[in-house]
Write a structure and sequence with these properties.
Layout: H1 3-25, H2 31-43, E1 49-50, H3 51-58, H4 62-74, E2 78-83, E3 86-94, H5 96-129
Antiparallel strand pairs: 1-3, 2-3
């Protein structure tokens, strides 16, 4: 087992997550809140994502997802609506304010990933080749 390469890859991931956390802090957002906004923007085929699907994207329990959504609703970044076909299902969509937030935060994240990606790719190649 190549522990050094595994550790190097996790270190690279953590560098990106630290960058992200610092950037999000300047916007008073948590990483989970940003990930929720990003998921709603990216994975909602109709512009709306269910709480269940968001919980899957965030890899957290339903009640934790509801708490994250509550915070985003208070920020006026997300709105909830009852699904017309199933009144038990809640659909989420971004407001203009939420969309503007994602549009503002996505480019620096992309740029940081682009900066880190050569090193990450090399590490992944070492992992896949068993070196």
């Amino acid at each position: 087992m190549d522990f050094e390469t595994l550790a190097a890859f996790r270190y690279q991931i953590r560098k990106f997550l630290r960058f992200s956390k610092d950037l999000l802090c300047s916007e008073n957002l948590t990483p989970d809140q940003y990930q929720a906004l990003l998921a709603i923007r990216a994975f909602a085929p109709s512009g709306k994502l269910s709480i269940r699907d968001l919980a899957e994207q965030l890899q957290v329990r339903h009640h934790s997802t509801v708490g994250i959504v509550d915070q985003l609703v208070r920020r006026e970044a997300v709105v909830r609506e009852v699904a017309p076909e199933d009144r038990r299902k809640i659909l989420l969509s971004l407001t203009q304010k939420g969309d503007a937030l994602v549009q503002r935060l996505a480019p620096p994240h992309r740029d940081e990933l682009t900066r880190l990606s050569p090193e990450m790719i090399q590490t992944l190649q070492r992992l896949s080749s068993g070196r």
